[in-house]
Amino acid sequence: MLRAGVDLGGTKIQTVIVDPLNRRLGEDRRPTPTKGGPDGVVDAIAESVRAAASNAGVELSEIVGVGIGSPGQIDVEAGTVANAGNLPRWTDPFPLAGALTKRLGISTALGNDVQVAVNAEVRLGAGRHYNSLLGVFCGTGVGGGVVIGNEIWLGKGAAGEIGHVVVEAEGGPPCSCGKTGCMEAYAGRAAMETEARRLKKSGKKTALFKIMKKKKRTRVTSGVWAKALKKDDKVTKKLINRAVWALGQGIGSSVNLLDVDAVIIGGGLGIRLGQPFVNDIESAMTSRLLKPANPPRVVLAELGDYGGALGAALLVEEIAAAEQVPELAASMPEPATVIAPPEEARASAPGSDAADAAVEAPAAKVAARRIAPAKKAPAPTKKAPATKKAPATISPAKRTVVTQANPAASTPAAKAPAAKSPARKAPAKKAAAGSGVAGTRKAATSPAPKAGAPSRTRKAAAKPPARKVTPVRPQPDPSPPTTPS
User: Fold this and answer.
1) Torsion angle of alpha carbons 65, 70, 95, 152, nearest 10°?
2) pLDDT at 326
3) Residue 427 φ then ψ, to 5°
4) Most buried residue among 15, 275, 411, 457 by CB atoms closer than 10 A?
5) pLDDT tens string 34-72
6) ∠ CA 353-67-465, rounded to 5°
């Protein structure tokens, strides 16, 4: 069964049609409407999905669901989006999921735009090598996502808003959130354009707006910034250096708090400016670290402009879990990714199959949904013969890619001495091998939670409920998607 994923941004709508192995079959990209309010945006999304399906050579009836990664405040259960400041006249809650379903006749799932993009990088891209990371995506605004212990941290629903970390408490520029001095007010593309227009009005010369008109754009897009930078435009260099400073301040402070293994830089602006931009951010960040001798890796998002749309398509796996779509559940290559599932899905989702998880390729990291706190298996009462000590028989095939073992999947030691039979020996180290990252990095394990302890996290990958299916070994697209020009 096929899925559609929509990355709804302040300047563009990117849609992909993917198969069960997350391979892109067709796509569409168009500007986000600046007029018409939420209804105008929904109309544009519907047309984009139809165009992507046509480009893939499939009918809408073959698509089991549409996932949307949207800016603003997302109410997953209500299917609404509110306070999407970078979208036209979008303040009050609007039923985006219901409106699109009505237009297309296809089930729709919603998620935060940056969180779904970070989730895609965790499962399919640069984040699959790390146990904890911070995603920072620079586009019209600056969004973020936090992964701790291989889980996406949601908090009370607003976690990861790194763009609103304050980098200049007094005298900073105004932010779209209504406050001043936020990182987004320096490094968000909309704020950068506002400052560029102010400088031009004050008499500074810049090629930014000539390039914008030549490209037939109504706003200064990421491609316009990249082209002006290549022309050594002074205003462009000044504003990008200003953005790098702010990103370094905000990311450095966040790393001091979280101590993550890696920072992934993505978003339209991050992808267009590429590795030199990432290198500059890393230098600015390191100067703020309490432990600069042991910094996190700072890497460029591997999925390029497609990260948000691919992450949105992964949301449709939740539809398979919640609505019990047998064809989709049976064809899923790995457990479903759930950013914020409905209560019935949370209650009924089983843990992942540890034996199958062990043979998964590192290109798709699997994390079992926690149903109950991990417990040690009871130590056996009899000792093994003295002539030969039997080590705890936790087979290497049970789990090698996650740091917490599922209690349902662990196998207690057979006839091992009580002192030699720990209930769980999840590997303490994980290799960071793979393309896109120089060398390897070892990630620390996350301790098992205490029994009964509440959790505000969602697993980056969780298995669909009520259907035991043998996962198919994933075969991701062998080459990372390229950024469209």
Assistant:
1) 80
2) 53
3) -55, 135
4) 15
5) 888 999 999 999 999 999 999 999 999 999 999 999 988
6) 25
